[in-house]
């Protein structure tokens, strides 16, 4: 039977995602409203009998002065990636997007390739002969991931080259850190914390650190810490309106889609973080902290509260998002990797992002432009 891809309503999109165990927060309709520089569209995959069997949020970025677009499906689309008929699923998407003026399509299959246990990552960091996580033998591998990559290459898709700093991709991170929650009690998860984490949580409690849920009105307090974090860790911060827009859009779709947590101590806000939830997947999204009063360990206390709340929500995974795959002691991101793995997180590698040039000349021009950036 013929499979078609066409635009769907917001309600159809949300209903499909709600019927799945989880989907990326970048694959729900509200995420399009967070990205005003892109035109967002919900796509549906329909079988010949009218059944909706897939959905995706595509973001269309226009080329200056041309009605041609880069089409991007971050951490999507939400389709059956194990299907033996993968080309049957992807070809109609390419055809539809080409009709809409896309010159290139980028997607990020939410498919895990390899995992490293916290113990394996800790041992790799301690080994002076190991420099990259990608070169460390994994604790487990997903055989279907290599097959998926081979099939995509045969269809003409190209794996995006890793960009950004020290293993962080220019799009979405290929390497992330996740704590598995499925089938585990909160006591199990607490036992998975390393000794330093457990000690710091107790220290914060003893010092009187209080973790509270914030609202839209607390975003400026979060942003003040976030801007300080950006200066300290040498990255370019997003503007405050970005977070205000994110809160408004996500909360309108689901009042529990986005949460804000703040760590208070004696009248000071020392740390803050945002948490996103879709189905059973919970993400620690953005974090911020001040260099003041670090000895009271607000970050550990705040993360533990977020983990407890995620467990109460029925999460099957707590996702710390991106990590560096660099194991060099000189790398300033290694401390962040230690922090996340210390919470019991395993390092996870996805199959990465993939490009399909619909117009090779314009796709090449975009590659050159991105290289110059």
Fill in the keyword field for this structure.
373 residues, Aminopeptidase, globular, 9-stranded mixed β-sheet, alpha+beta, 7-stranded mixed β-sheet, 2 domains, 16 strands
Query: What is the name of the CATH superfamily of the largest domain?
Result: Gcn5-related N-acetyltransferase (GNAT)
CATH structural fold name of the largest domain:
Aminopeptidase
Largest sheet geometry: 9 strands, mixed
Q: How many structural domains can be distinguished in the coordinates?
A: 2
Helix run count: 12
Mean pLDDT: 93
CATH architecture of the largest domain: 3-Layer(aba) Sandwich
Termini gap: 45 Å
Shape: globular
Q: Could you tell me the radius of gyration in angstroms?
A: 21 Å
Organism: Streptomyces fodineus
Family: Belongs to the FemABX family.
Pfam families: FemAB
Keywords: Acyltransferase, Cell shape, Cell wall biogenesis/degradation, Peptidoglycan synthesis, Transferase
